[in-house]
Design brief:
The complex is a heterodimer of chains A (308) and B (566). With 308 residues, chain A is an alpha/beta fold. Helix content of chain A is 35%, strand content 29%. In chain A, the strands form three sheets. Chain A has a six-stranded mixed sheet, sandwiched between helices. Chain A has a four-stranded antiparallel sheet with strand order 2-1-4-5, covered by helices on one side. A four-stranded antiparallel sheet of chain A has the order 12-13-11-14. In chain A, α2 runs parallel beside α4. In chain B, α3 runs antiparallel to α5, α5 runs antiparallel to α9 and α8 packs parallel to α10. Chain B is built from 22 helices and no strands. Chain B folds into two domains: 206 residues, no CATH class; 248 residues, no CATH class. Chain B starts with 23 loop residues before the first helix and ends in a 15-residue tail after the last helix. Chain B has 566 residues and is mostly helical. The chains are: A alpha/beta (308), B mainly alpha (566). At the A-B interface, β5, α2, α3 and α5 of A face α2, α6 and α22 of B.
Chain lengths: 308, 566
Amino acid sequence: MPATVELHQVTKTYGPHVAVDALDWTIPEGSICGFIGPNGSGKTTTLRLILRILYADRGQIRVFGQDQGTTADDRVGYLPEERGLYKKMKVRDLLRFFARLKGRHDASADIAKWLERFGLSEWADKKVEALSKGMSQKVQFIAAVAARPRLLILDEPFSGLDPVNTRVIEDAVLDLRKEGITVIFSTHDMETAEDLCDTICMIYRGRKVLDGNMEEIGQKYGQKIVRLQTEASPEACQTLPGVASCRSQGVYQELQLADQTDPQALLKMILENHAVRHFEIVRPRLRDIFLRLAGPESHEAEEITHHV
Amino acid sequence: MNADAAISTPLDGEKDAPDTSAGFWSRVDAVLDWCGDRLNPLLVKETRQALKSKQFIVTFSLVLGCVWFWSMFGIAMMGTDAFYGASGADMFFGYICVLAFPLTVVVPFSAFRSLAAEREDRTYELLAITTLTSRKVIAGKLGSAIVQMLVYFSAIVPCLAFTYLLRGIDILVIAMILFYYFFTSLALAMIALFVATLTEQRHWQIALSVLLVAGLMFVFFGSLGLTTQLAYEVWPFSEWEFWAANAGMLTAYVGYFALIFLAAAAQLTFAAENRSTALRCVMLLHQMAWAGWMFWVAFAVAPGGRYSPGLIVFSLGLSAHWFLMGAMMAGESPHLSPRVQRNLPQTFLGRMFFTWFHPGPGTGFGFALTSLATGIGLGALLLIARSANETGNLSALLFLDTATGSQIDHVMALAGSIVAVSHVGIYLGLGRFLVRFVRKFTEPSILISLLLHVVLVAVGTAAPLTIQWTLYPNDYGYSAWQLFNPFWTLGELFSRWQGNAHVPLMLTVLPLLAVGLTLAQLPGLFKELHYVRIPKPLRVSEEDEELHKRRHPPPPPTKKNPWDDE
């Protein structure tokens, strides 16, 4: 699949602080890519580099195959983290204005459809300053998509939205993907990212620590946890060879396996001595991986970045 | 969105000619909409917003109210003089007082706020990633300011016509004063837009807006003071010098306007773009235009006159100009983006002549000093040639005869020019070191660079004064301590030229130091000169070509005969 965005060894510094450090990242065309990372890890900077709002100190960024060109502009939609709308303009005029800036002069029908879909039709002729925060956010989303971009960059699109509106935006994003539009969004909402994204990229202190689809990530991080229901006591489980730690969770024991441990061999070993009612290789949630890589007690991300 | 909504490239979706099948007003609306689609979208949006804003409605209502009041009051005061006297100038001045405030304060400040708000409210980022270039953004804002000016003018013009009927003021004087006000307002709006681009930080924006309002109020009162002179004076319309002076002012105006416009646009442009070459070209053209005027004045206008005061004014003006330009260019990044590197000249001659036009603080330093030295050198040559032509004495060419009065003037003018250039070289050189030091911690903007240079000159002026007055409390005369004070040094040189023991010191220490500091810049400059053209990737060329085709589709084949359709 051709790539819509390619970053090669991209580095951006602010004085002594390295915001993005030798980042390599490829986003396939027509995919939804989640961009996660703790606060201050360089997500917004990376998105701004892709948009050419910022200029990379080193490395190459290609959008639709072009490096630092101007021609990508009319094919890229952007929802900034810090929302920016002209408060004195009417909603419909504002959306038409942004569509026109992107080269679409006949976006009225699309705008009407989007307003209807988001339940904003009756606000179309009201000024932006009259809208609530959630409504403004939806208007900003429409502003990003009204010109039918081929690449949509959403910086924290769900922050401040209630679950109903979050679902509305999620559905809209999924529909856009059906049309072949590539979507990149940064978020702190791991569940949404997990449900919505084809690929996930995580950066930590400016360096990439995770990149791939959920299946690949699951394979990489999933074999280390086993959920077990057995007659054996937690203490007995703890002493099993190849088990790093054991945590009791109700009727289940959650075993953290050592790196080299084969879960199948472990199962065979337990079965030799105890009856097993439940044995599950747990696919870790993205949230767990995130905490594991970027949590306060974790050094794993630093190890990964050092290996990179 | 419907799944069947095909993705169309924005350029495919352009609206066709207006629909003229509906009723009259609908047709007018459609035509206006069609025209609006073809204008700068920001101009349309800004103008609509500006004309609907409370600020405009209040100001315009006040203008109309004041004009009405002044008309009634003025006529009442005139009484029968309206028929027999010549009260036009008095009435005109009153109307101008009303008009000047929106033109010199309200419109420029609105332009400033309009652009500053884009950055504060984060809407500029959304504009920046569209096909709207930064020049179009500035042009859109400026266009909106012009429309507002014209609306204010349209409210006042009938009253101004009325003042002509009252006698006492010529229609040409009215036209000229309005012309000056229009261009003053336009320049102020342009400066205000430039100021708005200087910083994104809110505290700086507030500080700059306070300074801007103070400056605008100063211009407002200044313009009123000037109008009191102009409205009552007899204008020398029949004298060609008057028109020549106006043309000279217009030349300077156009040059600085273009510079500020491009500088404002450059401030908004992405760092990856070449933000400097266009500015440097305008600087060069500006200087060439000035040199042209200087030659014309020297040879065609003032035969038999004294030229050294002309050279002094020219040198000092040019030094101040290039100091400011050099100070701003020092804020440019020394790194060239791949995009800029793709367009560097690659031939020997090309690199020799056009390297100074590349972005970069080192080339900027070289460009500023070379241009200044060339400009002043040309002025000096002109002085010598004109003097030799007049006296028929070739010794004037070599400045051999310094005993006679005019020759001393000439030497003094040349010495002053050398001192001025040296000061520029010293302060730009030191400023560049200071900017390089600051760059270790943060990327300085041109505002920071300019401020650092200004602070440097202030320190260079104030510190020697403080030292001298601390060491020698009763000594208020010029001393060697003051060499780095450009104002006092030049004042001393021009006021006490003959027998001044400090002059040899000025003419040795300052040029030597300037040369030393210039040489010290060479390593940094050489680093910038290392950049060579990099080839454009094939894929970029193909994309550019494709884009060009999309934007400029071939015209449909024209029908040459009735059988072409077949």
